[in-house]
Amino acid sequence: MGSSAITDVAVIIDGSFEGLLTVVYGFYYEKLRPCGIYEEGDFQQELGVEYFYSETDAEKAGKVQNAMIRKFHEETYGKIVSAFLSFDPKRFYSLFEYIVLCFKYGDGVENFEQIDCVRHIREIGARAGGECHKLTGFVRFSETADGILYAEVSPENFVLPMLAEYFSDRLISERFIINDRNRGLAAIYDTREWIIAEVPEETVFDCHSDEELYRKLWRAFYNSIAIKERTNRKLMLQHMPKKYHRHITERMEETEANKTVKSINHKEHKEHIEV
After folding, report:
1. Which domain holds residue 86?
2. For a disulfide at 9, which of 52, 78, 149, 219, Cβ 3.0-4.6 Å?
């Protein structure tokens, strides 16, 4: 899109956090003025509306993210991440408006109760965090023949990253798989770190007989962490890399108490967005 004129368009993104932050960058530096933000494949076009596909740019998104980490209170950033993990289809545009407001007014934006996006982000973030909290008490693991703990969940919101972080802190020495049946994704933990991996649609798990499937999932795990070229970066970023989870509201209190968790080193980034 050219930068010579301000354009009001409905923006299509790939559904990733980086994709959303790329749009924020476009607002400040490319005169992009979204009238709506939608995930590709998950919206219906309307007559009279101009649509623009925004290509995710990791460098641009990184500059916005660095600025958010520097300028936003940790709780504010946590609300943004929790809201992003919600199932609400209107979350992208509300998050865009909320982030822009936070850059303009700082953490005082929480006092703007009359603004729709402020209320919306608070509501959907609380729903996602609340669902995760409930599931931590209801998840039940079964042990496979290979000694892997396996559990299934069917959450409304995409709380798999939060569940993976929660249980990896508590089942430190246990390998586990948490399968999100609603999304065809699974959190896989190998006692050191966890990833989110795709699960084939036709997969039927059986804790006693499907050992080969578990082996395939573990191979996928080791391939994605050991072979750079085979890492599904888009998928992992779409579902929130682990580095963001220290900012999730549900995790803040524990993260602060756990001194072994590494914080993001802002000094490593020489370039910062100034918004």
Report:
1. 7-131
2. 52
